[in-house]
Amino acid sequence: MFLHRRTPQLPTPEEALRGRATPEFTVPSRHTVLGNALLGPYPEGLEVADFAMGCFWGAERKFWETDGVWTTLVGYQGGYTENPAYEEVCSGLTGHTEAVRVVYDPKTVTYAQLLKVFWESHDPTQGFRQGNDVGTQYRSAVYTHSPEQAAAVAASREAYQKVLTGSGYGEISTEILPAEGRTFWPAEPAHQQYLDKNPAGYCGIGGTGVSCPIGVAPAGS
């Protein structure tokens, strides 16, 4: 007898796990690589960006290796369950993505440059999966913190769609929504900077190999 995996499907708010009023763990105070605080408030002048691009272990490393990034942390975003646990998110019953919060200095690295890292580090055309990782929590998403970020994401999506289409890829399925009203719930301590603590650990991050034209050509070219 063959076992058939159920097609991933986002839960409705009524179907989602209820969660809990307070977290069951304490987030570490410092980033193990960058040495800066994980949780805010952050120094004046820094900005925040939220990305989801598959398993958050490898995604976080992509950003902490980027010049101008002050700190990173992983968590759960875009769903309904309050203070979710990793196992709950993996069940598909919270509606959350595995997300990375990136705190950066816009004088050193622009949001457009972070978007280039985002687009090129995963395949945004795969829907509820990323490579062999299947589930709604692995969907591609950007949660924006300002109208400027929203406009930049839209322009970059249009630009990247053109080159992806030319390379034989399908439609970008990335979820693009305001971060407001979509709480970023920090993940458990073991998941923070996981690949720094476990250098040989699993990393499911892998892009299409198609260069994103951000910073090279305008979206309408």
UniProtKB/TrEMBL annotation:
Gene3D superfamilies: Peptide methionine sulphoxide reductase MsrA (3.30.1060.10). Its EC number is 1.8.4.11. The keyword Oxidoreductase applies. Residues 50-203 form the Peptide methionine sulphoxide reductase MsrA domain. The active site is at C55. Belongs to the MsrA Met sulfoxide reductase family. NCBIfam families: msrA (TIGR00401). This is Peptide methionine sulfoxide reductase MsrA. It comes from Streptomyces poriferorum. The gene is msrA.
